[in-house]
Design brief:
The protein is mainly alpha-helical and 364 residues long. It is built from 13 helices and two strands.
Length: 364
């Protein structure tokens, strides 16, 4: 399962740069959706097997220790890079909109933008919020691209809006994922009801409503929870059948971006999500003892959260090579090495502390 998570992270890297010799993997949109399913699977497993009902604060704080340290390191490095870029090239990067608009915006708006960049919560809300320079107030908008100034441009790590949804799911997961399959199916159905209600009520239904609206995205998180639940009642398929299915799924992940338009059409994404839900239990089963798979999987989060820093920083140095087909591969190599350093010097020491907290709580 670690390789899958890494490939999904690379899908986002490629989506924000260029294809790797024509290969795009599943694309950024579908990678995020599958990440939500995997998150639901993992949280169901962790909460059912590692934490008990009295461990709510321990669970939430451990998830925070997993998310925030690497996020804050990348945030600080991005700000430092923007400052150097501004001083050397007169390009202030992620600081540009703050410098251009801070004197024209209210304290409330600036405070909202600064705090959402620090605490992550609220970054998804920026996609549904505009700011009026005339009335100096925030307002709800159906299309963030039509706002001036565009608040999403104030996000220092733009892709971190997904973490806001993840964190909100963590807050409610302990109260739901331990329930039986009927309750999980009900949550999935409620999520789909919200999704279809939005489709039929929002004018010009598109991003951010398609995959940034938390109430409808809950259906994907709980599909992952359902995937964990059904593994206990599904019969284990024959090894040959299982290997063939996982091989097909691997090819689907790698070449989906190239094949989707020819074979799957508009329903291709949901076909891929269904395959993910059905195969995650077996994919986890065959890979859970692999240290290599685990190490590769650990790269997925730092790759995802740091890739815009690497792409942006590399673009400053490689300005004369923009458009070259090998650049994405170079970005992937650099971001993978950088992510390895984040794991070694930031994540690993904190993970030891996280594990010890759980062991101490359970008297082990």
């Amino acid at each position: 399962m670690g390789v899958l998570r890494y490939l999904l992270a690379l899908s986002v890297v490629i989506a924000h740069s260029t294809s790797v010799f024509g290969i795009t993997l599943v694309g950024g949109y579908m990678a995020v959706q599958i990440f939500f399913i995997i998150s639901g699977f993992y949280m169901a497993m962790v909460l059912n097997e590692k934490y008990n009902s009295r461990d709510y604060f321990l669970f939430i704080s451990n998830r925070a220790l997993r998310i925030y340290p690497i996020y804050w390191v990348v945030l600080i490095l991005t700000l430092i890079l923007s400052m150097f870029s501004g001083l050397l090239f007169d390009n202030w990067g992620k600081l540009t909109y703050f410098l251009d608009y801070w004197e024209y915006m209210s304290f409330t708006a600036i405070f909202f933008q600064v705090m959402s960049n620090i605490i992550i919560f609220g970054q998804d809300i920026m996609m549904f919020t505009g700011y009026s320079l005339e009335s100096e107030s925030l307002y709800f908008t159906q299309d963030f691209r039509l706002t001036n100034p565009p608040l999403y441009k104030f996000l220092v790590i733009p892709q971190a809006w997904t973490l806001s949804l993840e964190l909100m799911f963590y807050l409610i997961a302990p109260f739901i994922v331990r329930r039986g399959i009927p309750s999980i199916i009900l949550m999935i159905l409620l999520g789909f009801i919200v999704r279809f209600a939005v489709i039929f009520t929002v004018d010009n239904y598109q991003d951010p409503w398609t995959y940034r609206f938390f109430p409808s995205e809950l259906s994907l998180f709980f599909l992952g929870v359902l995937s964990f639940k059904i593994k206990k009642i599904l019969l284990t398929p024959r090894k040959s059948v299982l290997n063939a299915a996982l091989f097909f799924y691997s090819l689907l992940i790698i070449f989906f971006g190239n094949l989707n338009g020819y074979f799957f059409g508009n329903l291709g994404g949901w076909f891929l999500y269904l395959c993910t839900v059905l195969l995650l239990p077996w994919l986890f089963q065959v890979s859970k003892k692999s240290k290599i798979d685990s190490m590769i999987g650990e790269l997925s989060y730092p790759v995802y959260i740091s890739h815009m820093l690497i792409v942006g920083g590399s673009a400053l140095i490689l300005r004369d090579f923009q458009g070259e087909s090998y650049l994405s591969l170079l970005y992937i190599i650099i971001v993978t090495v950088f992510s390895s350093l984040l794991i070694k010097y930031v994540s690993n020491p904190i993970d030891i502390y996280r594990r010890n907290r759980v062991l101490e709580r359970h008297g082990l």
